[in-house]
Amino acid sequence: MAFLDLFITSSIPVLKVLLVTGLGSYLALDRIGILGDDARKHLNNIIFFVFNPALVSSNLAKEITYESMVKMWFMPFNILITFVIGSILGLVIVRITKAPPHLQGLVIGCCAAGNLGNLLFIIIPTARKERTSTFGDADVCHENGMAYASLSLAIGAIYLWAYVYNIVRVSSSMFSRESSSSPSGGSWTEPLLSSSNSPQDRFENKPPVSVAAKMMKKLEILVEKMNLKRLFAPSTTAAIAGFVVGLVPQIRKLLIGDAAPLRVIQDTALFLGDGAIPAVTLIMGGNLIKGLKGSGIQKSVIIGVLAVRYVALPLTGIAVVKGALRFGLIHNDPLYLFVLLLQFSLPPAMNIGTITQLFGVGESECSVIMLWCYTLASLSLTLWSTVFLWLVS
Length: 393
Description:
Layout lengths: L2 H25 L9 H27 L2 H6 L2 H24 L3 H12 L5 H13 L1 H4 L2 H44 L17 H5 L7 H15 L8 H14 L1 H7 L7 H11 L2 H18 L5 H28 L7 H9 L8 H9 L3 H30 L1
């Protein structure tokens, strides 16, 4: 296949996202005033409690079966690898840039969590239409592609709301306590990753502490601060419900299919879920207006996040997927391989912006990071998609 054809194929889904994002930015302008701060906040709540859970549960219930789960068993581990490696690299960025404690969770979350659902639901159908010769029969490709995107969305939602949500919540609680603990702004709460030791710690005669012990101490602090009641966010609970409906034949027969007696419930969930992707994309465009106004975030933090998401992770993904294929862990389906590779090259999850707005901390900083990430995604995602299509062809 010609490189130009691959490039055009890869650019079309990215252009779709940019067009909707541009519309969201236009609606958020002060002179338009349709998608202002209050409107975005209320719409975020609707997305959090209604649209995202409906999207996750309905697509999982419809596309996931026991046979497809056996076929796609490696995908949850592939996504976990993106989160683990992204988190490690995010910790490195936090250490190098000495990011403020209340932004450490945001930086780690942006490095760890990619847009594993919304973009795939746009990219996969478009790539299927443009490159049917690469991915095989159109109908089979569509069915498999939607199953891949649904599982990616569900697993990504579980990891995002169980991990990134709590990481950002811990950071925001640090900021709140720092603001209220003393007029001088001093914080008695230890950050997720402290950038330096106090003079007292440096000069006291204390026995040396191993790196492993320090990491265990950080982990204990993090676990203590996590509210397990909030571990199961609406999207996480919806993903569990979707798995149950899809994998239990008796329940599936009641809800899924043209002859199912309770199919109206599934149809309603699909109807609501269809609003999630355009709504989140519009909000992202509105939030990018904040990013244009700037914030106090360090340039080194932005550069670090971009390097992790668009250089380090995609290169790691090629090694992981090629290694898994070589050792027979995954089947040689070009579309499946393409999706696994894409999961390493996506921009940060748009719902990170939703999370920061829910806690009211790091909103402007998140907007700046998203502005740069999604501006460069038009080039980066197109180039990496071209490389991935070439690799799987």
